[in-house]
Design a protein that fits this description.
It contains eleven helices and eight strands. By secondary structure, it is of the alpha/beta class.
Length: about 375
């Protein structure tokens, strides 16, 4: 929900989701949210991480943005996925992790605060409670012992507690606030709680103050991140080619690109400098080429060893000599036998150079 102070006495209320803007009014907010929720998440009990934004422009309201996260469900009911708890936890952690966020921990007055799952999750990202504020709802339903709960602070809520009364039935906002004020003024137990810890107006004021203090704290870092991102984008933009309006400019740009490519090839192929591709090992050409040459050498030797195994030692040579017998001088190797053996050896390794060439990564060329 995004609250915005509006000068006009007539409030403006509308929903935004999936690029749609749906106007509504205070009386029909609940129905409009239900209809939009069904459109986003379906008619079952599933959830969706698609944001549904309620924008309220009204005179006198604080400028404040609040995110209402889904309640934690451990056991899926009919129509919910088996990992419903993991999905909800992931959504919650996504929104409460940023240091700029104020964690508004909503607790029921009737429960034991030390057993609340939401407190455990908020403590994961805000161990000291520096940006966690607890809102205790249904104070009128369980007033017994509430004062002790919010003053003892057994769960280390750094920003303290604010107790509120929920709106009941068709009560208007003004009616609900009047009844709430009366409750904390007249109730024998609730009236003992400090007035700085009760009521929706107090909660709104506390949130505005906390948000302002967090903005003051985080703004320098936010500005630094914006400037760093801007500088990085400007550097990337300056690397882009300029608008080319003539053939001469295009040729100049092309020659510049060609020169850069040639220099990169010299670095990785000749000088063995890989600073441009420190993490891309395929571009470390000299090292890869040495590996490939070693593999090629091993392949040639393995082919030779196969043909010269002990079992086949000189068998082919003797067979070829027998087949090339002829009338001639003794102890002279027939030329035909020599050529036959040479051709066999050549055929055994002639495919290796082609295989070696095909193994080259295309990025080398």
């Amino acid at each position: 929900m995004r609250l915005q102070n509006h000068l006009s006495p007539q409030p403006e209320i509308f929903l935004e989701f999936d690029g749609k803007v749906l106007p509504t009014d205070e009386e029909n907010i609940s129905n409009a949210i239900s209809a939009a929720t069904e459109e986003i998440a379906g008619h079952g009990k599933g959830i969706s991480d698609t944001p549904l934004t309620l924008i309220v422009k009204k005179k006198g309201v604080p400028d404040l943005t609040m995110v209402d996260l889904p309640g934690i469900t451990r056991v899926p009911v009919h129509g919910q996925p088996d990992d419903i708890y993991e999905q909800i936890s992931r959504i919650i952690m996504e929104f409460i992790t940023p240091e700029e966020s104020v964690i508004l921990n909503v607790l029921s007055a009737s429960v034991d605060f030390t057993t609340c799952e939401s407190i455990r999750m908020s403590q994961k990202v805000d161990k000291n409670g520096e940006r966690t504020l607890a809102v205790v709802t249904k104070a009128d339903k369980a007033p017994e012992g509430l004062l002790e709960k919010v003053t003892a602070d057994d769960v280390n809520i750094g920003l303290g507690y604010v107790c509120v009364r929920n709106r009941i039935g068709d009560e208007s906002y003004d009616e609900a606030r009047a009844l709430e004020a009366t409750l904390f003024e007249t109730h024998p137990l609730l009236s003992t709680i400090s007035k700085s810890m009760v009521g929706i107006p107090v909660l709104a004021q506390r949130l505005v103050q906390i948000q302002a203090s967090i903005i003051v704290k985080c703004l320098p870092d936010i500005i630094r991140k914006i400037n760093d991102k801007l500088s990085a984008n400007m550097e990337d933009m300056n690397k882009l080619p300029k608008n080319l309006s003539s053939v001469a400019e295009a040729m100049t740009a092309f020659m510049h690109v060609l020169g850069c490519a040639k220099e990169s090839l010299r670095k990785i192929l000749i000088r063995g400098e890989f600073d441009e591709y420190s993490d891309v090992f395929e571009m470390h050409c000299t090292a890869r080429l040495a590996e490939m040459l070693n593999q090629y050498s091993d392949q040639l030797q393995s082919k030779t060893k196969e043909s010269e195994s002990k079992h086949n030692f000189l068998r082919d040579e003797i067979k070829d000599l027998e087949e090339t017998k002829a009338i001639g001088l003794p102890n002279f190797l027939p030329r035909t036998a020599f050529l036959v053996q040479l051709q066999k050896k050549f055929k055994g390794i002639y495919s290796a150079p082609f295989e070696f060439r095909c193994c080259f990564p295309t990025s080398f060329f």
